[in-house]
């Protein structure tokens, strides 16, 4: 068996993370890892989370097995966070706790493969690096549609043109907010047009909500999803608590299926539980129990999340200003209007290598940088490095010029 094992390439993101760790330069800058960092470079445990953990420790609740759907209070809280208090769709949805947002995506991929194996998953291009592997691991066919900017923001004409070939029953994978890797989010009117497109063509939206609270706030960031839930009778949602609660390693997330009819919910739940049962039976309790505490009295958590959100927005603004000051090309100014933790730099693979080799600045090969990982003290240096790399002539001409 092992002799026939196909060679597996190391994960490119983790290869970069390891290269950064081995880099001995004191002034290196890590913009690869998708985690929030505060002004001192730490990824802190939120105060609200620490208090919830202290409560849980003193309550010493039994560690006996939980339900297959996970922590029920968590599931209830997540459905309200996503859909909003009093939403009509709350009555026709089923939410289960999952192993992070990744687990939610995989459970939903298996669910789609179970219910509709011929459905094509339409994925944004560029898109989140793990969407395609998750969908293909479940045996699903993946195609892409362009996700790019024009002067007005998201280029919706490109989306509509590329989805022309999508057939009724296909699934469109959208990012609820803070698109990873581009930071390009639809404007409210564009969400409406996207929902109309799905409705007219009979497409099923799968909305990946991994950054709720990091764009414009928890409510505003869910506006697109909530519009879809109000307009379309079948909607799938994958949600993560990794970023907005800082629960990265606790692997806490949720998968939601919104159905046209609440009579369908029992079978949907049974199907979701059948899928989790064959994977890991039930998800781990700790992160979900913390989140359930936060939902009970959310003030402190929401205020800390708002502080993080503002910091990311300030860093974004600060970088855009520094790029103006050092006369970097105008194309970098798109950073200013993009949302959330990530942006895709208008640089090619060679320029990204140069950034890494000459300046110790690590982003991914396709140009993604984690704005939330940038420290205020590094902003000017990063802006200058971007200017140099983007204005430098191609290496072949540079070599000739010095010959
Ligand atoms: C768009 C998107 N979806 C899902 C995930 C996975 O989240 P989690 O770490 O909770 O598995 C991420 C994480 O970076 C993401 O960016």
The proportion of residues in beta strands is: 5-15%
Q: Let me know the largest β-sheet.
A: 7 strands, mixed
Helix-strand topology string: HEHHEHEHEEEHEHEHHEEHHHEHEEHH
Number of domains as seen in the coordinates: 2
The helix count comes to 15
Distance between the terminal alpha carbons, to the nearest Å?
Answer: 55 Å
Main CATH class of the largest domain: Alpha Beta
The residue-averaged pLDDT reads 94
| CATH topology (level 3) name of the largest domain | Aspartate Aminotransferase, domain 2
Class by alpha and beta content:
alpha/beta
Low-confidence stretches: 397-403
Helix content: 40-55%
**Biggest sheet strand line-up:** 2-10-9-8-7-3-4
Ions and ligands: pyridoxal-5'-phosphate
3D structure, described in words:
The protein has 403 residues and is an alpha/beta fold. The chain folds into 2 domains: 2-45 and 302-402, Aspartate Aminotransferase, domain 1, CATH 3.90.1150; 65-296, Type I PLP-dependent aspartate aminotransferase-like (Major domain) (Aspartate Aminotransferase, domain 2). It has 15 helices and 13 strands. It has helices spanning 12-22, 47-59, 72-83, 100-115, 131-137, 156-162, 188-201, 218-221, 223-231, 265-277, 286-296, 299-325, 349-359, 379-391, 395-402; strands spanning 29-30, 93-99, 120-125, 141-146, 149-150, 153-154, 171-175, 204-209, 235-240, 252-258, 342-344, 361-362, 368-370. It has a 7-stranded mixed beta sheet with strand order 2-10-9-8-7-3-4, sandwiched between helices. A two-stranded parallel ribbon has the order 1-12. Helix 4 (100-115) crosses helix 5 and helix 13 (349-359) crosses helix 14. The longest helix is centred in the last third of the chain and has 27 residues, at 299-325. It starts with 11 loop residues before the first helix and ends with a helix. 44% of the residues are buried. The chain binds pyridoxal-5'-phosphate. Pyridoxal-5'-phosphate binds next to helix 4.
